[in-house]
Amino acid sequence: MSWITSLHKRTLPSRSDDANAKSVDSSGKRIAVLVLGDIGRSPRMQYHALSLASAGHYVDLIGYAGTRPMEDVILAERIALRHVQVPELLLSAPRSLFILTAPLKAIYQTLLLIWVLLFFIARPDCILVQNPPAIPTLFVARVSAWITGARLIIDWHNYGYTLLGMKLGPTHPIVCAAKCFERFFGRHAYAHLCVTDAMAVDLKDNWNISGKLVVLHDKAPRHFRHLDSSEIHKASNIGNDPQLAELAQSSALGLADCHVDKQQGCKSLLTCRGADGTVTMHPNRPMLVVSSTSWTADEDFSILLHALEIYDCAYSSAQKGESKLPSLVMVITGKGPLREHYETKIAQLRLRAVRIVTAWLTAEDYPLLLGSADLGISLHTSSSGLDLPMKVVDMLGCGTPVCAYRFSSIGELVTESNGLVFDSAEELAGQLQVSLCWHQYRCRCLCNRCRYNDLAEKERSKSAFASRPPHKVHLCQFQCLMDYYCALRVVGSRHFAAKHAQRDLLATA
């Protein structure tokens, strides 16, 4: 029986978590926020918890331990972190045993979550549940809401059965059963929150849902912003990742045309400090491109790797002509099952002008990287075609233009005013050439104190590309990118944050 006691201690939440919920009084509602995943890797649900706490309510944030949550969440007096855990035996089972272990895992999670919601935490007035995963969270949340009399709110990030379909195939019997489960238990709730307009339309037309339907677009928090040269200089040593530490030593990159001007006091990869102490962007620096990922099957990074190979070849060809391309540093952040697979592929590449770095950043360091970047890339391909990648929201919040893989609802976020969309590696490579070559020209103009909104300068730059435009990139798109950079310089990046402000969640309750 000792192993049962040990398992009980490891998997149930600790009463010590109540230390986060201090000074509890009679005012404010109790909200249970259910995330059947790593809390630290669920930014939207953390933002919900912070919004509810700031409105004077008490939040039990239930989910897995793992990645450290945001400091604001940890320090919030009205948020109690309730970490639950599934036995490692069920998590580490080989994929070939998925059909056997998945039901056992679902049964265990059901019993554990029912215990937490009904017996462990204080009786909630409202249960906010993230979907996916749908199994067993929708069933548990609905049953718990019925027993306690709490209002149920479902936050639809995507459809769980479509993610399962990527693993087993869309016509697999288990996927069909999961779809029926999700439709039945997800149909009825007090309110439904959706990440896109397209998802709201689909739920209304095809799911016949009951309850309030609210579209709640993601928005980057205030600390996601564009950094100036002095802030980029200070942030050059962000993170404890060894590959990022190597980036701080620009001479170690081995990139073509990436030189360190010691007379100018260059101290980082991107910036240099002059004799008077003024920090500017180095005129011969490489362009910094960023992508973030969970390293899962819904993002095909072979597209990016092939595009970087094409860019590297274009760089070599351009060196022989008058128009030169900048060297490039590609930083890919995130954790996930396919990281080692792609790192092996990256190690096999032989690139002259491109350096690829894979790293993991904390929630505090991640916005510093995005705020320093020249361009962001998203390879997110929605399993349902109805969700939007949070990474793009964060990039645009930092004023960083984005090249995003095309799918049906991406137009709600990426438009001609803030980025480009692509369908292939060739198209992405062309967009890299356009945006980075223009950005390099912009940086040199700023170093020489040129007025960047000068129409004559724009026309000269545009005509230089008109003679040989890259693959499938139109001049109107190039003009939009130029206007975006100019406006970013004039009015700042916050103007280009996601256009929909996050509404108070309590308005639905």
UniProtKB/TrEMBL annotation:
Assigned keywords, A-Z: Endoplasmic reticulum, Glycosyltransferase, Membrane, Transferase, Transmembrane, Transmembrane helix
GO MF entry, a single one:
chitobiosyldiphosphodolichol beta-mannosyltransferase activity
Cellular component GO terms held in the UniProt record: endoplasmic reticulum membrane
**Where in or outside the cell?**
Endoplasmic reticulum membrane
Q: Which Pfam families match?
A: Glyco_trans_1_4, Glyco_trans_4_4
User: What EC number(s) is this enzyme filed under?
Assistant: 2.4.1.142
- Which InterPro entries does this chain map to? ALG1-like, Glyco_trans_4-like_N
User: What membrane topology is annotated for this entry?
Assistant: Single-pass membrane protein
Q: Which domain of life is it from?
A: Eukaryota
Name the enzyme's class: transferase
Q: In which pathway does it act?
A: Protein modification; protein glycosylation
What are the residue boundaries of the Glycosyltransferase subfamily 4-like N-terminal domain, all occurrences included? 47-216
The main place the protein resides is: endoplasmic reticulum
PANTHER family xref list: BETA1,4 MANNOSYLTRANSFERASE, CHITOBIOSYLDIPHOSPHODOLICHOL BETA-MANNOSYLTRANSFERASE
Q: What does this protein do?
A: Participates in the formation of the lipid-linked precursor oligosaccharide for N-glycosylation. Involved in assembling the dolichol-pyrophosphate-GlcNAc(2)-Man(5) intermediate on the cytoplasmic surface of the ER.
Query: What is the protein name stated in its UniProt record?
Result: Chitobiosyldiphosphodolichol beta-mannosyltransferase
Which species is this UniProt entry from? Coemansia reversa (strain ATCC 12441 / NRRL 1564)
